[in-house]
Design a protein that fits this description.
Blueprint: H1 2-20, E1 22-23, E2 28-29, H2 40-52, H3 86-95, H4 110-115, H5 124-138
Antiparallel strand pairs: 1-2
Helix pairs in contact: 2-5, 3-5
C-alpha cells in the first residue's frame, strides 16, 4: 500500500514538474492552455511567468534554460522615463523582440498563438494582448 502511494506521489510530482515548463538541451517548451481573454493576470501566469517569474522580475523556473535572464518586467515604466511603454509591449507580443536576452527565438511570439485561440472572434487576439499589457502595467514599481 505504501509503495503504491509513493509511486503515485512520484508520478504526480513528475507530471506537475514537466507540465509547467519542459526543458531540453536547446529549447524550453511551455505547456500553455487556453486562458480567459479578459484576464491579464491569468494570461501572464500561463504565458509569461515560466520565464519572467510570478513577480515579473525575470527569475521564472524556465529562465535558467535561456542564454541570459529574461528582463525584469516590473521596471518597464521606470526604464521609459516613468511612462508605461504599452505600444512597444504590444509590438513585442505580436512580433517578438530584438532584446539580446531574448536572442533570435528565445521569447515566443505570443500574438499569433493568442490569435488562433478563438477563430470565430478575430478581435480576441487584440483583446488578449491588451489585457496582458494592462496587467503588466499594474506590476510596475514606482
Amino acid at each position: 500500500m505504501l509503495k503504491e502511494i509513493l509511486v503515485i506521489a512520484m508520478a504526480g510530482t513528475l507530471t506537475l514538474g514537466t507540465a509547467f515548463a519542459e526543458q531540453t538541451k536547446d529549447t524550453v517548451t511551455i505547456h500553455a492552455g487556453k486562458t480567459a481573454a479578459n484576464n491579464g493576470q491569468e494570461m501572464y501566469a500561463t504565458y509569461c511567468a515560466p520565464c519572467h517569474g510570478v513577480d515579473g522580475k525575470g527569475h521564472g523556473p524556465a529562465a535558467s534554460a535561456l542564454r541570459l535572464l529574461p528582463p525584469d518586467l516590473t521596471v518597464l515604466s521606470k526604464n521609459n522615463n516613468g511612462k508605461f511603454p504599452g505600444s512597444h509591449l504590444m509590438t513585442v507580443l505580436q512580433f517578438g523582440s530584438e532584446m539580446p536576452s531574448h536572442g533570435s527565438a528565445q521569447m515566443p511570439i505570443w500574438g499569433p498563438i493568442l490569435g488562433t485561440m478563438n477563430r470565430t472572434n478575430p478581435q480576441e487576439k487584440q483583446l488578449r494582448m491588451s489585457n496582458l499589457s494592462r496587467y503588466l502595467e499594474t506590476i510596475q514599481i514606482k
